């Protein structure tokens, strides 16, 4: 079973992530940051990766450590659940439209972290949530998940829609990349012999 649980504890946050790559998009995410929970729910729902997250972070400072460290823990859980990556599609991409927002995500589960983040927000905040933390989350996910990740905002005038469409676009791309490719059977999708 492609499942993993990661527990990560620092002086700033205590985070537990459980995920199942072969799930149905069931989620139970509680980080103490409402908008971020809403985004994590989208990530699960649209990737079909079951996701349970409990985060207890230093929110009296701000949301930064909690959001970043949750990204780290999800990335680590992905690596553990993917294991040897035998038989997966490896690549995924998606154009996601949400009202005014059009986001494109393209990713490679290459083991090589690389983030291209071409997403500007028209406002600095969504409610009390700092928009710049969306990039921090995906930077942490890319780095610790070993993911080459490109995200581009092609259109968008509403920050909530732009953020949400970015999570949904990455979710759909991730769904494709982690899936088993029936033509790949038990082969590794690389000519290098390792991913
Ligand atoms: Mn929403």
UniProtKB/TrEMBL annotation:
Its main location: cytoplasm. It comes from the Bacteria. This is Imidazoleglycerol-phosphate dehydratase. InterPro entries: IGPD_sf, ImidazoleglycerolP_deHydtase, ImidazoleglycerP_deHydtase_CS, Ribosomal_Su5_D2-typ_SF. The gene is hisB. Pathway: Amino-acid biosynthesis; L-histidine biosynthesis; L-histidine from 5-phospho-alpha-D-ribose 1-diphosphate: step 6/9. Its EC number is 4.2.1.19. The lineage of its organism: Bacteria, Pseudomonadati, Pseudomonadota, Alphaproteobacteria, Rhodobacterales. Keywords: Amino-acid biosynthesis, Cytoplasm, Histidine biosynthesis, Lyase.
């Amino acid at each position: 079973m492609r499942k993993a649980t990661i527990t990560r504890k620092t002086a700033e946050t205590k985070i537990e992530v459980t995920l199942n790559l072969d799930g149905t998009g069931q989620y139970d995410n509680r980080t103490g940051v409402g908008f971020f929970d809403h985004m994590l729910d989208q990530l699960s729902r649209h990737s079909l990766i079951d996701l349970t997250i409990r985060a207890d972070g230093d929110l009296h400072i701000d949301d930064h450590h909690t959001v970043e460290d949750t990204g780290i823990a999800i990335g680590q859980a992905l690596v553990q659940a993917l294991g040897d990556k035998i038989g997966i599609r490896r690549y995924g991409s998606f154009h996601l439209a949400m009202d005014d927002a059009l986001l494109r995500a393209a990713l490679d589960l290459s083991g090589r972290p690389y983030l291209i983040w071409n997403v500007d927000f028209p406002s600095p905040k969504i409610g009390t949530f700092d928009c710049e933390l969306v990039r921090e989350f995906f930077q942490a996910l890319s780095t610790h998940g070993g993911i080459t990740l490109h995200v581009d905002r092609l259109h968008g005038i509403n920050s909530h829609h732009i953020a949400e469409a970015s999570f949904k676009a990455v979710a759909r791309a991730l769904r494709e990349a982690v899936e088993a490719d029936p033509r790949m059977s038990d082969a590794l999708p690389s000519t290098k012999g390792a991913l």
